[in-house]
Structure formats: structure tokens, C-alpha cells
Amino acid sequence: MVKDYSEGGHTQSRRPLRDGSRLREGEERRVYPRREASFVGLSPEQTRFKPLGDSEDPNSPLRAFPNAYLETDEPHKRSLLETLLASTAIAGIGYLGLVILLLSLFTKEYSPITQVASDYGVGTYAVEMNAGFLVAGAGTISLALAGLLSLEGRSARAGSVLFFPGGAALVLNAFFSTDIEGAASTVHGTIHGLGGVVFFITTPIALLLVGRGLGRRRFALTLLAVALGIGAPALDSVMALDAAGFAERILILVVFSCMILTALRILKEA
Fold it and tell me: What's the pTM value of the predicted model, to 2 decimals?
């Protein structure tokens, strides 16, 4: 329900929260200049902000402020498209994670301790692994789109945009297989390696930006998780543990888990 300011004239209160979060119990924010609504990345079509010039009461003093928005008590309603995109993200990312987990636990073709997960893409289970890259890439792109439609705030939306290159890299890796450790370098393997670099750089940054947009607590938890994930390959490299495969799997677990939690957050939005 739209708050009624037809009596008492125009009231201007605090700026919106920088993370774009919704009203807390007992808080009230009233009229926002257009620039302040834009500050948190909102638009009247997809948020609780209603243009004041659309006031139904022709005598309302609010009609004198056509370039501002009136906040309503109605939360952002998740659309069917957002639900489908977030669900696709969970299914695609979850599939690749499950394939890596099962192959690591129940096959002996490659060592899960010393060899990276991409090696499965050139072995007995190449079809399953490369299909995983493809659907996980589609899921990551779906997460980017769902975030742009659902998440509020510049930081969260910027993070959503950064999921796009990571998703594209996974799709690319579905068609360009890696070079097995110790084998001669090939064009396919080089492209696959570059795709991995793009994914593991852009996706953690995207998760941190989205976490920042969802509040301090979410950002702190995401930062801790990403630090632990990145710390595993770094520790293996510094201490020469010969556990590159295990370290990479820890990083994959952290990144995929955070991505799925982000998609679940979008699904839970009312």
C-alpha cells in the first residue's frame, strides 16, 4: 500500500541504504529524488518506488514532484523469469559440481589429489565432464541475468554483470579440452587454461560484489569463504605440496557453493 502524504505536504527523510536493502521494522523513508532512486540501481517498474507524478489524487501536493519516487510497502515481486533463471543456475552449477565430486570419489583414472578436475574432460568420462562445463556455463549466465533482474544496489548489480565472463569461459571450456599434465601444449589446452583463469578471477570478484550489496554480514561470510578457497591453491603453490588437484577442488567447492547460495537468495526474495 502506498503511504499517503496528501496531508502535511512533502516530507524528505534519510537517503536509501547504500546496499539497497528493504525497510527494517519501524523505519520509514518517504520521498526520493530520482537521482537517489538511481543511486541504488532501482527503477519504478521493478521496485517499490512509484513516480509521484502518477498520484491518483489530483489535489495531492505530491503531484508537484514529478521527478521523484514514492516508496510503497509492497516488496519486489519475483517474476516467473527470475525463478526460472535462478533455478537454471542452481541446476547447471550443481550438475558440474556433482560430476566432479562423483568422479573424484569413485573413479581412479586421474588422481583427485595431484590432477585438476579438467583432466576428466579428456578421459573416459569426457562427455559427462564437458556437458558439465556447458550446463554450468549456462547456469552462470542465468545467475547473472537473475541477479540483474532481482538484486538491488549498484554493487550487487555490478557483481551480477561479472558473472557473464565466467559463464562464457565455462561454455568455451566445454569445447576446448585441457592438456593433461606433462603432455605437449596445444591450442585447445591453452584456450581451456585461459578460460579457467577468467572464471577463477571474475567469479570470486562477482561473489564479493554481490555479497557487499546484500549487507555487511553476507559480505563478511563471502569474503571469508573466498579467502579460504583461494588460500588452498596458494598454500599448495608456496609449500610445494603436490596437491594441485585437491586445492583446486576446494576452490571449486567454495565458488560453486557461494553461487548456488546466491541463486537461492534470489529464489527466496518475496
Answer: 0.73
Asked if 37 and 52 touch (Cβ cutoff 8 Å), the reply is no
Q: What are the tens digits of pLDDT across the range 116-158?
A: 999 999 989 999 999 999 999 999 999 999 999 998 889 999 9
**What would the grid cell of residue 252 be?**
571449486
State the Rg of the chain over Cα: 23
∠ at Cα 141 (189, 47), nearest 5°? Answer: 160
**Strand order in 49-51's β-sheet?**
31-33, 68-71, 49-51
Residue with cell 517474476: 79
Residues 185 and 251: their CA atoms lie apart, in Å, by 24
Which tens digits make up the pLDDT trace of 62-75?
455 444 444 444 44
In 3-state terms, the chain is what percent helix, strand and coil (to 5)?
A: 60, 5, 35
Q: Where along the chain do its domains lie?
A: 1-76, 80-268
